[in-house]
Amino acid sequence: MNTIKQIEETAARLVPLYAQEETDLPDRPLWSHPELDQVIEALRLLSDVLFPGRHIPEPADFRSFFIKQLKNTAEILEQEIEKALPFRWMGAADLHEKRPPIDNLFLASTEIVNAFLGTLPAIRTLLIEDVKAAYNGDPAALSYAEVKLAYPGLVAITSHRVAHELYKLNVPLIPRIMSEYTHSLTGIDIHPGAKIGKGFFIDHGTGVVIGETCHIGNNVKLYQGVTLGAKSFPLDEHGRPIKHIQRHPTVEDNVVVYANSTILGGDTVIGKGTTVAGNVFLMESTPSGSLVTRSDGGVMIRTREVPGHGLGI
What we know:
Blueprint: H1 3-14, H2 36-50, H3 62-84, H4 87-90, H5 105-117, H6 120-137, H7 144-150, H8 152-168, H9 174-186, E1 189-190, E2 195-196, E3 201-202, E4 209-210, E5 215-216, E6 221-222, E7 227-229, E8 250-251, E9 256-257, E10 262-264, E11 269-270, E12 275-276, E13 281-282, E14 290-295, E15 298-303
Parallel strand pairs: 1-4, 2-5, 3-6, 4-7, 5-8, 6-9, 7-10, 8-11, 9-12, 10-13, 12-14
Antiparallel strand pairs: 14-15
Helix pairs in contact: 2-3, 2-9, 3-5, 6-8, 8-9
């Protein structure tokens, strides 16, 4: 068989492997979806608003610079959110819920973008606290500029705080595109649904995983390789994973989790001020002020009041 005939035969065998229905199927081509490059460009524009100077020279007028950046961002997001919104009712997880379509996608997209833009001052306020947390939490950081220019944890939390606001506005696809793009850059995987308080610091960062339904309090510090994940998840009567339930841990204020520790379960609560040592596998809650370490029998949870325990950690 010559090459042309092989191409024709292969093409004929490929055609039936691509569904043509207007539903979210595993074999449907990706024709109607947000443009990946445009979503990433919107994230870049927002990064320059939230941390101006990383990629662009100093503008003559700050307010005019913000207006220009936000106009460009709004134009992109309005178009891409309009493409994403049909997945509210045509997504595989939503089909059985029979959600009604939106009549005016353009108007809905515009309203979402306006609501999102209004959250940017609050995001900026949180990020300032995240910069402080990184500087105060890492003796190797010699300036705030070093944190802002070079720390992958700050890149990841910046992207997350943007994506999380879009997630809260029930925007399909786009928040996850943003988070996975940042995951590819930093090695830090934060689902946009995770709720994260102020003063959050991820040190080093590579291999950190934070699940969708995590609740993380204020002034929490994670090291590389930490997983805040789910146990095996329940299925509905059709054998599908049940969505929108608490599957991931709650980490309260002032907790430190050292490298390569794994904490699992939606009913697992790490109490305020707890320290989890490295290489711990934990599926149970801890009281406030605990020290969690490995032991021959699994893990040991102790309070810091015990003399000699936890010194130096």
